[in-house]
TrEMBL record:
Domain named TonB-dependent receptor-like beta-barrel: residues: 235-599
CDD domains tied to this protein: ligand_gated_channel (cd01347)
Keyword rRNA processing recorded: no
Name under which the protein is recorded: TonB-dependent receptor
Topology class, membrane: Multi-pass membrane protein
InterPro entries for the chain: Beta-barrel_TonB (IPR000531), Beta-barrel_TonB_sf (IPR036942), Plug_dom (IPR012910), Plug_dom_sf (IPR037066), TonB-dep_rcpt-like (IPR039426)
Length: 627
């Protein structure tokens, strides 16, 4: 504990020294939205005015990035830990602010996504080519969104219609190390009242031989990928084909209609003796109707379905299939009762279904949830206040009430302080409850209490924000290697500090993010005081970008400290640091050539025990994007 306190004091000192000179700003220019975000409050607000730690990654940053996948893009950002099992397309889990990998709610175009069996979202299967922007909200949001939002909410917005009236197209091709091949194209037809559009993309790689774990089939002892020594000495490839289709129409100033569908189909090879490849489908279909007869009133109805489907094989022999669907609908009303005072109220409906086809352990389950929620946002001079409350009625676990309060104050010279407290909960996944031989039907829902204090300062072209938080989780669900099933840990405590900043220095756009974390098991027993698995104590990311005429240059450095890979803190995964470099050349008005060098110093590292990460990789891309 002493080393943790020292680390936290060091981080707090670094934050204090940095406040006068650094700046945080994540700007989203898509469709001239003036930095509007909607995920933090379910209503439109600017990122720098939100009473939460918000980060926006827009299409311009996506185009300039060296990342080739969503997990790569999110890696190293403040409060985010990505655990990947062997490179592109392989299982990737995200830990936000030290909470569990299924404690972050993911939305795609406002539709809740994720597998009801594993409780996870297949981040690795959402291609960057189909994304317009990403909003990251750190901190609990169950009082607005219900279950799963203990650590925060991440919303992905798929590609939007580009430009004004007329026909607008775009395209990109790329090739690189390990047989990387990428191609994407899109077109939009816009009129004064609406438009239609489509984007298609392909991505594939030969992959690497990632698995370093083995087992003895005679003694049943081993670790990692559970392969017999000397077998599966091959590369594990990945293929992804995706499409997004969209349409929107506004017959007048009061009505807006929107519909969109996103689908990705892929094939993934990996190492294992019981199954070693899978065919996957991720699909999100949804739409909305919005009626706003005046500036004081807006009603919106949204409905959609997410399908998560995985067929798994051993060679060409069928092993099992996990098929889940998540149907959701919500009705929301926003009422401006006076200038600077907005009340939001609504109803959410959700139904999860799971069908597991397995020769040894099949099961089929479904579960529904209904909820009422309300929120108040008010401004009183230099003070801002947000109150939210929600009541969920779950078919299996009954009623759960959650709430939140946030306050902010600006006190001159660009300074702003915010404070918040909120509760959240998470229902067990179907696998945790029902999977034969390794489940626990007696699990209770997890619940949490979180408090946060933030200090920010803005200036001309710069902004800095420091966040300190603590989350206590009761009945945390963790895997017990002795009982060979998930169990409720009595209590876990998570403390952390984040610093996010951007500025301009000598012509360079500088974006820095630093995080410290202390996540511990406080339950009685042999693991009391042990660190929660797969959470590094420190992480940092630095992005540098500069344009010189038609040329663009960039560097990204990512570093993470060591972490434990098991609840008993007996399996250590070492820390690492990597550097990515990129250069682009706009050789014609609509054409850009870009070269990316990933892991430039060929660092040998792991984010999950027994699974190697790719070494140095190179990619070259050509992009056509008319202004």
């Amino acid at each position: 504990m002493k080393s943790c306190n020292t680390s936290l004091r060091f981080s707090a000192l670094a934050l204090a020294l940095s406040l006068p000179s650094l700046a945080f700003a994540q700007r989203d220019d898509a469709k001239d939205l003036d930095n509007l975000v909607v995920t933090a409050t379910r209503t439109a607000t600017t990122a720098d005015a939100a009473l939460a730690a918000v980060e926006v990654i827009d299409r311009e940053q996506l185009d300039a990035s060296s990342a080739r996948s969503l997990p790569e893009l999110l890696r190293g950002r403040a409060g985010i830990t990505i655990v990947n099992q062997g490179g592109m397309g392989k299982l990737s889990t995200l830990f936000l602010r030290g909470t569990e990998s299924d404690h972050t709610l993911f939305l795609v175009d406002g539709i809740r996504v994720g597998s009801s069996t594993s409780g996870l979202t297949s981040l690795q299967d959402i291609p960057l080519s189909q994304i317009e922007r990403i909003e990251i909200v750190r901190g609990p949001r169950s009082s607005l969104y219900g279950a799963d939002a203990i650590g925060g909410v991440i919303q992905v917005f798929t590609r939007r219609g580009a430009g004004g009236e007329g026909v607008h197209g775009r395209g990109r091709i790329a090739a690189g190390s390990h047989g990387l091949r990428e191609a994407s194209a899109g077109v939009d037809l816009r009129s004064a009242r609406g438009g239609v559009g489509v984007d298609v993309a392909h991505q594939s790689t030969d992959g690497i031989n990632a698995c370093t774990g083995t087992y003895d089939p005679d003694t049943w002892q081993g670790a990692g990928c559970f392969i017999v020594p000397g077998t599966h000495l091959d590369r594990d490839g990945y293929r992804n084909n995706s499409a997004t289709v969209r349409a929107d129409f506004a017959p007048n100033e009061s009505w807006q209609f929107d519909a969109r569908a996103f689908r990705t189909e892929g094939h993934n090879d990996y190492d294992g003796d019981y199954q070693d490849n899978s065919d996957i489908v991720q699909q999100v279909v949804g739409g909305s109707v919005r009626w706003s007869p005046s500036d004081a009133l807006a009603l919106k109805l949204t409905a959609g379905r997410n399908t998560d489907d995985s067929e798994n094989y051993s060679g060409s022999t069928f092993a099992n299939r996990y098929n889940t669907t998540r149907d959701s609908a919500n009705l929301q009303g926003d009422f401006t009762v006076a200038a600077g005072h907005v009340v939001t109220a609504g109803f959410d409906w959700l139904r999860d279904r799971a069908n597991v086809v397995d020769p040894w352990s099949p099961f089929a389950e479904s579960r529904g949830n209904r909820a009422l929620f309300a929120q108040y946002q008010g401004t009183f001079g230099v003070h801002e206040l947000q109150l939210s409350a929600r009541r969920d009625d779950n078919d299996q676990f009954g009623g759960h009430s959650t709430g939140g309060i946030a306050w902010g104050m600006g006190f001159g010279d660009g300074w702003r302080v915010t404070a918040s407290h909120a509760t959240a909960f998470k229902a067990p996944s179907f696998n945790e409850l029902y999977y034969p031989g390794s489940s626990n039907p007696n699990l209770d829902p997890e619940s949490s209490r979180s408090s946060e204090l933030s200090l920010a300062r803005s200036g001309d072209g710069w902004h800095v924000q420091a966040n300190a938080y603590q989350t206590n989780v009761d009945d945390l669900i963790a895997w017990s290697s002795t009982d060979f099933m998930p169990v409720n840990i009595e209590e876990a405590r998570i403390r952390g500090v984040e610093l996010v900043a951007t500025t301009q220095l000598a012509g360079w756009d500088v974006r820095g993010q630093i995080g410290t974390l202390d996540a511990r098991n406080l339950s009685p027993g042999t693991n009391h005081g042990k660190r929660l698995a797969r959470r590094p104590q420190r992480s940092a990311r630095l992005d540098l970008d500069r344009d010189i005429g038609d040329w663009g240059f960039g560097l990204s450095g990512i570093a993470e400290a060591a972490r434990w890979d098991d609840v008993a803190n007996g399996l250590r995964v070492g820390g690492y640091g990597t550097v990515d470099a990129r250069v682009s050349w706009r050789f014609a008005s609509d054409w850009t050539l870009q070269a990316n060098l990933v892991n430039a110093f060929d660092r040998d590292y792991q984010t999950s025990a027994w699974y190697a990460q790719p070494g140095r990789e190179f990619a070259l891309s050509l992009r056509w994007q008319p202004d």
